[in-house]
Amino acid sequence: MLFMLILDLFNKQFNFRKSTLFSIVLSCEILIFIFFSTLTTVVAVDNNVNALNDNANSINIDNINNMNNNMNNNINNNINSINSINNNSNGINSNINNNSNEINKNNNKNSDNKNKNNNNANSSLNSINDIKHKTISQKEVYNVAKKYYSSINYYRNIPNNFKVSKNFSLNRNEFYFVLSTYIVKKYKHDNSNIKIKYGIKSPKSIYVSTLKGKISSSKYYNFVIENINNIKKYNSPKSYNYYSAIFGCLYIITKSKNKKLPNSINVYLPKNDMINHNGQSVLLQSKFTGGKTSKYLGHSSRTPSNNPEIIKIAKTVIKYCKTTREKAKKLFDWLKDKTDYEFYYGTRYGGLKTIKSGKGNCVDLSRAYISLLRAVKIPARFVYTNSKFVISKSYIPHVWVQVLINKVWIPADLSNSDNSLGSIVNWTPYGSKIYGYYNEYPR
Q1: pLDDT tier, 259 (very low <50, low <70, confident <90, very high otherwise)
Q2: CA 244 to CA 229: how far, in whole Å?
Q3: Pairing state between β 264-269 and 211-216
Q4: How far apart are the C-alpha atoms of 250 and 224, rounded to whole Å?
Q5: d(CA 156, CA 147)
Q6: pLDDT exceeds cutoff 80 at 109
Q7: How far apart are CA 355 and CA 310, in angstroms?
Q8: 3-state DSSP call for residue 301?
Q9: Is 270:210 a contact under the CB 8 Å cutoff?
Q10: Helix (H) or strand (E) holding 382
Q11: With left for phi above 0 and alpha for psi between -120 and 50, is residue 335 left, alpha or beta?
Q12: What are the phi and psi torsion angles at 259 (to 5°)?
């Protein structure tokens, strides 16, 4: 209808032919159709797009919600896991603490056990240090004998133990048995090792006599055979000249040449030699003949036993000593450590100044020692001799001390650090001459 109206309009105005006009109208109609078709398509497309957007939004929101839910669930699960982990961590910490406590307890136990083990180790070390070798080689015996002989010859004292090596020592009786066996084997030309006998006891009593003259190899061989038999039978060496016999064995072995025993030895060992009395200078001892001892407790300006400083020193040094011998030895050792010998004649310092200066000659050192002894009521006196000194082999006027212990005057000489209470080794009594005894030395 619309097209017909348009056709009539155009026909009246422009006077077109019907065929032409029809073509125009048809074209317009086609264009209009295309326009509306396109518009409809666009609207449809737009609707579809909107629908798609809605779906997309719906899908995205759902997905997002689902994702959020999933994430929340995961977060919750993770939180639960974390809580679980924390719980486990607490449990672990608790276990750790418990384990730590157990470890500490175990450590304490281990520490206790370690201490016990250390004690056991120390015991083991002691047993290692006291390793009991079954045998000893003849070379070892020779080396030990050679090492100890010169020292014993000087100090005139047989030691209680002989060290063979770092962890191997033999006591005096055990080594005496070894020395005797060495001589027997060498005499028989037997170079085999020596079997050691342990636990040998010392003689209950010792009988001493002067040894003098030439002793053949057969005689000293017979002597050591008797000694070995005595040890095997009674578990103790022969008591006859016990110390000098040990010294004699050492001498024989050290005098061996090309590992062959000497055919004979020359001996001179007096009954009162220090060797026979285990290092004690018995020849320089004197018996107390009685009388008052007060004169041996006096004091003077040069022997100031009443000086407060001297008294304090002496009492401090002997604080833990009980017997007179212990006190006298402690004072001797203390003064020996604190002083050095200095050569000059007569008195220069006196007792107190000698102690303070740490030096003095034989007179002043004797004054210092006597001052300390008398300060604690121990009687002591000066002895003046013409002494034969071992190293120089010369005779020199000399002053030393005697201390009264158990009714015996015991010798003490501070002029040489090798000396000890009762034992003087730097000069010999043989050939020395005593000029006098003094409660106060006059020079």
Answers
A1: confident
A2: 19
A3: antiparallel
A4: 12
A5: 15
A6: no
A7: 9
A8: coil
A9: yes
A10: strand 380-389
A11: alpha
A12: 60, 25
- Please state the length of the chain: 443
Give the pLDDT confidence score for residue 324 in this predicted structure.
98
Angstrom distance (rounded) from CA 245 to CA 215: 13
- Which is it for strands 359-360 and 408-412: parallel, antiparallel or unpaired? unpaired
- In this structure, are residues 200 and 236 in contact, taking their beta carbons and an 8 Å threshold? yes
265: amino acid identity, one letter = I
Q: Is 166 exposed, middle or buried (0-12, 13-18, 19+ CB in 10 A)?
A: exposed
Q: How far is CA 313 from CA 113, 308, 360, in A?
A: 46, 9, 18
- Tens digit of pLDDT for each residue in 4-59? 544 454 444 444 444 444 455 455 555 555 544 544 443 443 444 344 344 434 43
- Residue of 48, 73, 52 whose CA lies nearest to 60: 52
Cα atoms in the 13 Å half-sphere on the side-chain side of 234:
13
Reference 420, options 339, 330, 356; nearest CA is: 330
Return the CATH fold of 286-438. Answer: C8orf32 fold (3.10.620)
